[in-house]
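S.,

Sequence below, as promised.
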Amino acid sequence: MLLALFIALGLSMDSFAVAMACGASSKKGRLGNAALISLSFCFFQTALAAIGWFAGFAFLSAIESYDHWAAFILLCYVGGKMAYESVFGEKRKCGSRLGAAKIVALSLATSMDALAVGIGFAFMGADPAVYLSAIAAVTFILSFIGAYFGSHMRATLGRNAELLGGLVLIAIGVKILLEHTSLLSTFP
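The prediction came back faster than expected:
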């Protein structure tokens, strides 16, 4: 369960960062925006992780001997991309007017990494109910907090949150690789 929470935390940092930027730039009511943004991010993050899990599970028997490498590569790619974009990417802005189409587009954009991580879940033999529930809950909570308090924090913490999320995903990928290659058991 703890691993599921860490993965969910790593994935939802992207949503948190974008939700905070939206909250910081939006002039609408805080609670309504926060609820709408967090529900949308929660839905897309969970749905794409589930789609990834089903796709990965369908191909599991064909690549079972390489599954730990696939999970490692996917998590490091997604985490590295998040970390890189937090340092070198363009600053995301939502504008002063958040419509449903913009929220859906941002939700989908921040959830693409969940698709890749969902594939990794199948390779890990993870229980999808545990991981998807953790992703849904953590994404909703962090997106709500980010959107609600974004106007107070301005978007400065957003990039640091995305960097932390990327580093967490990379660390989890390394842990999976070390466990499956027996390297982790050699450390005291």
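The chain has one domain: 2-180.

Coffee later?
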